[in-house]
Structure formats: C-alpha cells, structure tokens
Write a structure and sequence with these properties.
With 492 residues, this protein is an alpha/beta fold. Helices cover 28% and strands 20% of the residues. The chain has 13 helices and 23 strands.
C-alpha cells in the first residue's frame, strides 16, 4: 500500500511512500496515475477537483482549490488555500463512542504523603526569578552526589521571568512556577529566590497555599552570606526526605498523561496521532486521565472534539477557550490561520485545517470531561482540554504544570527537547525512528506499513507503563529538561 484514503468521502489520498511520476496507484475501486513526483506524507488528488471546490481529508474540509486540480496531481500550497477566517460559530451536537475494554493494569510508582501518585522521585530547584538561574545550575552541578538510592535525579528549570512583568504575565509566571512545585514527580523542592524581584516570597507562598515544610523549602539568596553553602545544606535535608520514598504497585487509573505534537508531517494524523488517540481511550477506560492542548491547532477541527464534550457546560467552556485564543491572535493583528510551520509544509501539511484535523486525532474518541485554564491542575478523570499555544516548550511546560506525569510527543521530523516530566518521542514514520535513535522512543511508523492502530495503541500503553515504572526516555538519558513560560504583555 503506497497511498491511503483516510475517510471514504476524501477526494485526496496521502502518500505513504515517495511516489514517482506515472506511477499507477489504486485505492479500492479508484485508480489514478501520478502526474508528478509526490513525497511521502503529501497529498494526491484521487478525483478531479474544480477551482474553488472543497478539498476533503479526514472527512473534513481542509482547503479550497485555488485552481483546477486533475486526478493524480500533487495537492499542496501551490494549488490549495485555507478556508479559515477569524470567526466561527459552533453548535453542540453531543456524540458518544464506546471505549475499548481493557483489563486492569498497574505500574511501579511512588505514593506521596498527600496520596498522589508519582512516576519519578526527583529533587527540583525552582527559581522564582531569572537572576538566580546560574546559582540554581551550580547547586545542581555541585550536589549530584545526592542522587542515590530511590532519588531519580536533581534538576533545575531556568527561565527569564519573575521580575519586570505586570498584570496577567506576572500572574501566569507565579501560577506556573507554583504548579511545578506541587508536581508529584518532585519528591522534594527548593524554591530559590533573589530577594528584590517582583515575584516576592510572600506572593509565591500565598499562591502555593499549603505545603509540607519537609518537602518544600525556600532560600532567598540576598538574605544569606553564602548561598551555595546554605543551598547545599537545604538540598541535603530535602534528599533525606525524598530518599524515604520507594516504588510500589499503583493502579494505572492514577496516571495523568499529556499529549503533544511537534515537527508534524503528513503522516502525523495517520500513524502517530491516532496511535496516541487509541492509547488515550485505553487509559481512560482504565480510569486514567489524559490532557490535550495546543488550542491554535484545534482551529478548523473544532467539531471533531466539541461534539464529544460530556455536557453543554463543558462545551461552552471549550468554545470560550477557542474564541479567547482567536481573540488573542486578532488583538495582536495576526490572522488565526498563520500556521503551519515551514517544516510542517515540507512534511506534507498544507493548511491549518489539515494540521488541526491530524492534531486532534491524539484525543481519541473519549468524552471531554473538563476544560482547563493555563496551568490549572487536572481534577476530573478522563480527557481534559488545556488552554495553551502550539509552541512545543510552552505547551509541554503547561502540560507538566497541569499534573501530567509524562508527555507523549509525536513528531514527523524529530526534536530533542524534554519537558520537566518524562517526554516520550513518538515517530510518525520508520525512517525518522531509524535515523534518530538518540531522540525517538517509540515508532508509530509501523502503522503506515500495515500495523493495526489498536495493536499500536496496545504497544504504546505497555511502553507508557514501563516509563511510569522507571524506564528512562531518551530525553532523560541526555538530561534534556526545559521550561518556557507563556507571556503576552510588556517586559519592564
């Protein structure tokens, strides 16, 4: 099989391999001859499409033809254009789908004193302001001897903010950093401040609310003579606390998994993303939770997910989330469809609708139980939507802050970054998996080679439980851990 028609109503198919000029292609009763070379992941017209007519993929309109397109022709940015505008109207047409039956599963995780489950037992240093990033980094470097026994690692997450911010930006930085402090994968946390920043210790603690003083400790560098000596002493105390935890059997129902894509290609919506969608349905069937974000990459595919909101209340929250992001674009003088990226286009994605319809495949078929604001924590079991941009670092950080124990990151072109939570890289094609062994953890390219999506979803569930039980991802092996804070306004 060298091409695939995703939905019977589609008038384009996707190349699963590179197609040569004059190559004869067939799907069921449809036969076409390629009129030009067409790269893997790109689209080919399987019927004549008149200028101005709809181009259909995933059973959805993904573009309009800019000119007549003959069957067998390459369909891409040269002859197709987005149908999106800055406005949209949505109606609630509730749909439900049966979830797969899955036998109970467990993983070897950590049980925190507050009852929460964790998949890592790490010590984190959270800088309240960018001015202390280097101090945090040196404390990490000088105290690696504390990583012993059941302690999985000692990390810090530098960022440039915590000062010179106003309004919503200041609030979002505060909310995000305190949410990271609360993350269950952090067995113990040192909050490191300077002393004169806008994000004061008092503000930070107020946002944090209650905390266990054995697990969370604070150091203001301007208040001590030697911040390295004092910081090292505190880290020793935190290590003594974190070292008391050990792995035990925990039901898979307690897992929270974030879902993200980046460097997508034309196979993302056919292989890796629906594989993640199958996994999501299986985990939710087990009683677990998943989180889907990247709101701008829902534009054009809203009906696919909105109809699965479990109630009108959740639907209204989802509509407000999407419209707020559209207003965000418009308020900055930008069109809502300023996407996909050059890499996406090179991989075969033509319009934002094309990208979005593939992106939302990660959400599977489960009901949407809640819609979260940026850095809000998951409180309901099931599929959650999270407000956040498509940017890889920003959205992966937000997923972590919302409580994701790990993040499943699908990619057609590859990327090395890692979030604070273990980040599983899933390739859309086998060529990438074989080329970038140091980046990619799991190959979903086998779906394009004939593997059933349910089988791929089962494999991914098994792999997730291995990671939850301590198997290191490639990003963990390399020590790649980063955060990025979402900002909108003025920097003083």
């Amino acid at each position: 099989m060298n091409i695939i028609q995703i939905n019977p109503t589609d008038n384009v198919a996707v190349a699963l391999t590179d197609i040569m000029t004059n190559e004869e292609l067939s799907i069921g009763q449809i036969s076409v001859k390629a009129s030009e070379n067409i790269g893997r992941g790109h689209k080919i017209a399987i019927q004549n499409i008149e200028s101005g007519s709809e181009i259909i993929k995933y059973g959805n309109v993904i573009a309009h033809a800019k000119k007549d397109i003959k069957a067998g022709s390459w369909v891409h940015t040269h002859n197709a254009i987005t149908t999106l505008s800055d406005e949209g109207e949505y109606s609630y047409n509730h749909k439900t789908y049966e979830l797969p039956k899955v036998s109970p599963r467990t993983f070897k995780g950590y049980r925190r004193n507050n009852g929460k489950a964790a998949i890592r037992n790490e010590i984190w240093i959270i800088p309240t302001v960018g001015c202390v990033n280097s101090i945090a980094g040196e404390l990490v470097a000088k105290n690696q001897h504390l990583v012993t026994g059941s302690i999985d690692g000692l990390y810090t997450f530098p960022h440039p903010f915590g000062c010179s911010q106003m309004g919503d930006d200041h609030e979002q930085t505060k909310k995000l950093l305190t949410a990271l402090v609360d993350h269950p994968n952090a067995g113990a946390v040192l909050v490191l401040g300077l002393g004169c920043e806008n994000l004061t210790l008092a503000q930070f603690q107020e946002q944090l609310g209650s905390w266990d003083p054995d697990r969370v400790k604070f150091l203001i560098c301007q208040d001590v003579e030697d911040e390295f000596a004092e910081g090292s002493k505190i880290l020793e105390e935190l290590a003594a606390y974190a070292g008391k935890f050990s792995r035990e059997d925990i039901p898979a129902s307690e897992l929270v998994v974030g879902m993200k894509c980046g460097g997508s290609d034309g196979l993302s919506g056919i292989t890796a993303n629906p594989t993640v969608g199958r996994f999501s349905d299986k985990l939710i069937s087990l009683g677990g939770s998943t989180i889907l974000t990247e709101v701008p990459e829902m534009f054009g595919a809203e009906s696919i997910i909105f109809d699965r909101c479990e109630s009108k209340e959740v639907f209204d929250k989802a509509v407000n989330m999407v419209n707020a992001f559209k207003d965000y674009f418009v308020s900055h003088g930008q069109v809502v469809y300023e996407n996909p990226s050059p890499g996406n286009k090179a991989g075969g994605i033509t319009t934002l609708e094309d990208k979005s319809c593939g992106c939302v495949q990660k959400g599977g078929s489960a009901q949407i139980v809640d819609v979260l604001e940026y850095a809000d924590k998951v409180t309901k079991k099931g599929l959650n939507l999270l407000s956040g941009p498509g940017n890889d670092l920003v959205s992966a950080t937000a997923l972590t802050a919302s409580g994701a124990h790990m993040i499943l990151f699908t990619t057609g072109r590859g990327t090395p970054f890692g979030a604070p939570a273990p980040t599983v890289k899933i390739s859309t094609n086998s060529a990438l998996y074989n080329k970038k062994k140091g980046w990619i953890d799991f190959n979903a390219g086998s779906v394009a080679e004939g593997e059933d999506l349910d089988s791929a979803g089962d494999r991914l569930l098994d792999y997730v439980l291995e990671v939850a039980s301590g198997k290191e991802t490639k990003t963990e092996q390399h020590g790649f851990r980063e955060i990025s804070v979402f900002k909108d306004g003025v920097v003083l």
